């Protein structure tokens, strides 16, 4: 039987400055998350699970908080998960407090029944995204990429067009989270300037944000991307590559029987405001940049 939780300690090195972090993937079914929620949700987080919350949003909230708490335990050893709060900020970004958490933050993303989180120092901005390819949204995603970006992706990624398009999307959404603007800016602002193979995935640079670098990987299930300052190098605590390890986790999670969840956006989420994908039903907003839960 495959695992439903995956996590590891991270090390960030920024020109001699070192920061601890953590990365985690949650693939637990909603029944498990519901049953164990009192073990990892703070009272304030539990209060977000109102009866009016849609089932899809309930699952993503639980999975996201579980992944975040797993990631945070690597920088807050010995701290009870329930004592740490992750609540929406003024821009509805996830804000960490309690449990001795000082100058620590998390970046979260969901795709179907999966959630990924990276815990990081506030001094080192990070953004992540996880999304599933979907042929029915190919045209909409195509419109949100430039001819140059599609050519770069075709040269760097030996996968089908749907996976190339969703990987471009992931890289841009991860950048928007690192910038804390979310998908509220014209998508062209987040344009990718270069895309080259690196390990099992790709490395991206951006037209308007040369200070950031993006790393992306395609799997048999979702694509995953992380964006961080280009001066930062990251590894797992044992020195291995986080992107390779995350791809392995996703492959293992994909081996589990699928959990049917109705979605409208490729990831089951929809951007805020005018967003880049028009004409798609808004089901669940992007984690970190979403309207307050009713």
Automatic annotation (TrEMBL):
Chain segments annotated as transmembrane: none
Any GO molecular function: magnesium ion binding
Family matches, as Pfam families: ACPS (PF01648)
Annotated SUPFAM superfamilies: 4'-phosphopantetheinyl transferase (SSF56214)
Cited Gene3D superfamilies: 4'-phosphopantetheinyl transferase domain
Keywords: Transferase
InterPro entries to which the protein is assigned, alphabetical: 4-PPantetheinyl_Trfase_dom (IPR008278), 4-PPantetheinyl_Trfase_dom_sf (IPR037143)
Domain 4'-phosphopantetheinyl transferase: 125-198
Name recorded for this polypeptide: 4'-phosphopantetheinyl transferase domain-containing protein
Organism (species): Rhodoplanes roseus
């Amino acid at each position: 039987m495959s695992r439903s939780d995956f996590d590891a300690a991270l090390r960030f090195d920024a020109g001699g400055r070192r920061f601890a972090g953590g990365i985690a993937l949650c693939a637990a079914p909603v029944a498990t998350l519901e049953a164990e929620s009192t073990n990892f949700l703070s009272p304030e987080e539990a209060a977000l699970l109102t009866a009016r919350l849609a089932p899809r949003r309930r699952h993503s909230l639980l999975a996201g908080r579980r992944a975040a708490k797993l990631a945070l335990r690597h920088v807050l050893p010995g701290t009870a998960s329930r004592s740490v709060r992750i609540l929406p900020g003024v821009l509805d970004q996830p804000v960490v407090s309690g449990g001795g958490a000082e100058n620590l933050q998390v970046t979260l993303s969901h795709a179907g029944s999966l959630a990924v989180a990276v815990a990081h120092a506030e001094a080192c901005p990070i953004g992540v995204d996880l999304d599933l390819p979907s042929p029915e949204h190919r045209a909409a995603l195509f419109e949100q990429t430039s001819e140059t970006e599609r050519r770069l992706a075709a040269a760097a990624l030996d996968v089908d067009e749907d996976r190339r398009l969703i990987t471009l999307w992931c890289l841009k959404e991860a950048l928007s989270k690192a910038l804390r603007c979310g998908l509220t800016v014209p998508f062209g602002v987040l344009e990718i300037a270069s895309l080259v193979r690196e390990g099992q995935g790709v490395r991206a640079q951006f037209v308007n944000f040369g200070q950031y670098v993006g790393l992306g990987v395609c799997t048999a299930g979702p694509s995953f991307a992380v964006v961080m300052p280009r001066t930062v190098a990251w590894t797992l605590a044992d020195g291995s590559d986080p992107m390779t390890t995350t791809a392995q986790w996703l492959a293992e999670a994909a081996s589990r029987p699928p959990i049917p969840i109705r979605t409208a956006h490729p990831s089951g989420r929809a951007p805020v405001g005018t967003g880049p994908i028009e004409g798609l039903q808004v089901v669940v907003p992007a984690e970190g940049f979403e309207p307050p839960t009713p």
